[in-house]
Amino acid sequence: MNRSTIVRSAVVTVATALAAAALVVPAEAQHRASADTLPLVTPRAETPVLHDDDEGGNADADDPAIWRNAAVPGRSLVVATAKEGGLRVYDLDARLVQSIAAPPAAGEDDAPGRFNNVDLVHGLRLSSGKADLAVTSDRGHDRLRFYRIDRDQAGGPLTDVTDPAAPPVFSQDQAEINDQRTAYGLATWTDPATGKSYALVSRRERTSIALLELLPAADGKVTYRKVRTLDLPASFRLPDGTSWSPCGEPGELPQVEGMVVDPANGMLYAGQEDIGVWRMRADLTGTPKLIDKVREYGVPGVYDEETEECTPGTDPGFGGTKVSADVEGLTLLTESDGDGYILASSQGDDTFAAYDRELEDANEYEGGFRVTAANDTLDGSEECDGAAVLNAPLGSKYPNGLLVVQDGHDAPGDGERDATNFKFVDLGKVMDALDN
Predict the structure, then answer these.
(1) Would the pLDDT of 403 be above 60?
(2) Less Cβ crowding at N or C end of the chain, within 10 Å?
(3) What is the pLDDT of residue 169?
(4) At 54, is the pLDDT very low, low, confident or very high (cuts 50, 70, 90)?
């Protein structure tokens, strides 16, 4: 989802000892100024551009995952979603290796397949043996899809192993699926205590998150069963005693998309786009904790049916200071000593925020960075939807590891066509930026 349509023109009052009266400064200018002070990193490569139109196959870059080839790290892969364009698989030079179409619509008037988020499962035990899998949320059909990864397989490294009988995640029938309040965000998790693997799936335009256990089916296929669901709040009590919900289309609740699980402690981090970043147990028991809020938290708004946009009211000052709505792609950057970061895409100001992964440090904010242009032809990342990071050597190309981020506005474009792709960033540059 692109950044919130709320026009961020609220104002804040800043007291100063140098003036007798307060100065009124646009909040958007303040946010941009703080974002501009963050360190800059540049990408090393970018994937071929995707176009979300008929000519481009309605392909729209969204979310990546990085699969490491343990035998030959330089032959690792990036698997990424392209919404109605299906899946794309890239090598470490960001060249296309394989393109997989999303499944067709169930019927003439039904929604087509639309791959939203992707994550990986390593060593899942199938009836045909253990396998690494790419798992994607198919928003169009309200299902998960599974693809076995074999780097040297003829015809491409990914093979569909989805059980045809896999059920809808949230919907009861095709009519409900067509309403598209369906499987959206996705994170995978293997419980070290039991060895069982799970997918956590959010629901579009709702606050629900479902925990699905991944199960082997006949003939090497994969299915799942729902264990439980959890609903995050849709309205919030503000410090002044009022109740607030973010502005949106009528009937639309504040959804979650970006999610990641820290396997060291079994914690799920979930980005509720217009609210902030939540931490909760990955088994969806216990009480979620909001560890950071977006800057727009608490700002009232009125939805305009004609413009399909929200007009904001005055900012009461209850929001956070580090991320701007939407908060999107979340990914886990691990370090060998147990340290590391939860990285979050701050889509509203084109930056990335890093939070300490250690619970004893209360997931405190550790810094941020911006992915900016390397040259006239290799731009940075704007309105980033999804991100993936891997802190492990990946051959001579990325000996320090790799960060892959979606770019919602690839440049230079070709005029009127929407253009998206993925940027590959040397993780060493990111670590230097966060350490400074």
Answers:
(1) yes
(2) C
(3) 98
(4) very high
- Whether residue 90 is predicted with pLDDT greater than 60 in this model: the reply is yes
Cα distances (angstroms) measured from residue 403 to each of 162, 164, 327, 333, 393: 28, 34, 18, 9, 12
Contact by Cβ (8 Å): 128, 156: no
> Which residue, 82, 66, 74, is CA-closest to 114?
82
Interval 233-250 mean pLDDT: 97
8 Å CB contact between 160 and 145? yes
pLDDT confidence of residue 415:
72
CB of 369 within 8 A of CB of 352?
A: yes
Nearest to 214 by CA among 270, 135, 280: 135
Q: Please state the φ and ψ torsions of residue 30, each to the nearest 5 degrees.
A: -60, -45
Sheet holding 115-126, edge to edge: 115-126, 129-138, 143-149, 158-160
Both tokens assigned to 29: 């200018």
Q: Is 108 exposed, middle or buried (0-12, 13-18, 19+ CB in 10 A)?
A: exposed
Q: What's the rounded Cα separation, in Å, for the pair 44 and 66?
A: 16
Helix (H) or strand (E) holding 433: helix 427-435
**In whole angstroms, how far apart are CA 288 and each of 49, 209, 233, 354?**
38, 12, 10, 20
Containing 106, the helix (H) or strand (E) segment is none
Beta bridge partners of 213: 198, 225
* Separation between Cα atoms, residue 294 and residue 327, nearest integer Å: 7
257, two tokens: 């998309």
Distance CA 122, CA 118 (A): 14
d(CA 299, CA 315): 5
From residue 392, alpha-carbon distances to 181, 187, 226, 345 in Å are: 37, 20, 33, 21
Q: Quick count: other Cβ atoms within 10 Å of Cβ 122?
A: 15
- Strand pairing of 45-46 and 208-216? unpaired
pTM value is 0.92
Distance CA 410, CA 383 (A): 10
